[in-house]
Write a structure and sequence with these properties.
With 356 residues, this protein is an alpha/beta fold. The protein contains 11 helices and 14 strands.
Length: 356
């Protein structure tokens, strides 16, 4: 949560709760009926919704003063002060997630990473409902007439919001767009946590690495190109692209290297994917590149680019850009591709880096 916003909630938590009534209790109850615990209420506020969720329930908020109010409304909830962008939980901890007006306090550029943290913390097939504001702007003057001015809010274009949620590793089951109060449009995104990888992306990327689709092995490991026989990480270290093996978060934070996949659906083999999935995935990656503006998009493997763009493509810089960003396509790093050594793959990664 934005620090200034958190400080406002710390000073005015009880006043804020007294001036409002709980909204969408029936939606929290509906989520509880179709899901299982343990549950987490992200940005729980006074705990109005935490009381509705399957137990055991964690009530997480950035403001300690809000967590004090949880004792009144959801006394059985486990209270945790924490950051949406750095959730302090083990992988696959939760069967249910509820987030009502919490991610709205993050800058849009931080939301993909925060949702990736949530995906990591949820069990495969776990259900969640995530609420966002709809509009497209962000800042401290988004709702100038609010009685608690100075809070940071972000609002989303609906199509971009769906892209970001899918990129974070969720299946979007339903989007409910409504107006609750004057000039306050929100979208409740009902999701299922998929057995896949979440995008590890952010602003200022030198390279956005795009795999074909996650293997089931990689999805379960939570790291792209994770199988021991895959040569991506040894090649990336040899090329100077990264310095730590199989750690995409370190690669993003310290080297400006992000990760996504052309198709988010994990499979045992690439021949299970369809041309339609390749083309839909390409459109999503193009929108992602247009938004985050990496210096170059590097596709690991020719098959996806050939299926979606140019069936005669060869490795190297491509004629077509994505979102205005240059595209470099290299051979697959899979252990099944015996023709490409670590050194030859590293040479391709250096060529991609030379475009930054």
């Amino acid at each position: 949560m934005d620090r200034g916003t958190r400080d406002i909630y710390e000073r005015h938590a009880r006043e804020w709760a007294a001036k409002r009534r709980p909204f969408h209790l029936e939606e929290a109850e509906a989520l509880a009926r179709r899901s299982n615990g343990p549950s987490i209420d992200l940005g729980c506020g006074p705990g109005w919704h935490a009381a509705m969720l399957p137990e055991p329930t964690v009530a997480l908020d950035g403001a300690r003063a809000m967590l004090e109010l949880v004792k009144e409304h959801a006394p059985r909830a486990l209270r945790v002060q924490g950051d949406l962008a750095a959730l302090p939980f083990r992988p696959r901890s939760f069967g249910t997630a509820w987030a009502r007006n919490s991610y709205v306090h993050l800058p849009r550029l931080e939301v993909p990473g925060a949702l990736a943290q949530l995906h990591r913390s949820m069990r495969v097939d776990a259900r969640g409902t995530l609420a966002f504001f709809v509009g497209g702007d962000e800042g401290r003057d988004v709702f100038p007439d609010t009685d608690f001015g100075g809070r940071y809010f972000s609002r989303w274009d609906l199509d971009q919001l769906v892209d970001i949620v899918i990129g974070a590793g969720f299946v979007v089951d339903r989007v409910v767009h409504r107006t609750d109060r004057v000039n306050e449009h929100d979208a409740h995104v009902e999701v299922t946590c998929a057995r896949t990888l979440a995008d590890v992306v952010g602003p200022g990327m030198r390279v956005l690495t795009c795999g074909l689709n996650p293997s089931l092995y990689a999805a379960d490991a939570g790291v792209g190109f994770a199988r021991p026989g895959n040569r991506f990480w040894p090649a990336a270290i040899t090329a100077g692209l990264v310095t730590v093996d199989r750690d995409p978060w370190h690669a993003l934070r310290h080297h400006g290297v992000g990760f996504t996949d052309l198709v988010k659906r994990a499979t045992t083999a690439a021949d299970q994917l369809t041309t339609g999935e390749y083309r839909a995935g390409l459109a999503r990656v193009e929108r992602l590149a247009a938004w985050l503006e990496p210096s170059v998009v590097a596709f690991v493997g020719l098959a996806g680019w050939r299926a979606a763009v140019d069936r005669k493509a060869v490795a190297g810089l491509q004629h077509r850009a994505l979102g205005g960003r240059p595209v470099y396509v290299m051979p697959s790093s899979s252990g099944l591709n015996a023709r490409s050594s670590v050194d030859s793959l590293a040479a391709h990664l250096r060529a991609a880096l030379a475009l930054t």
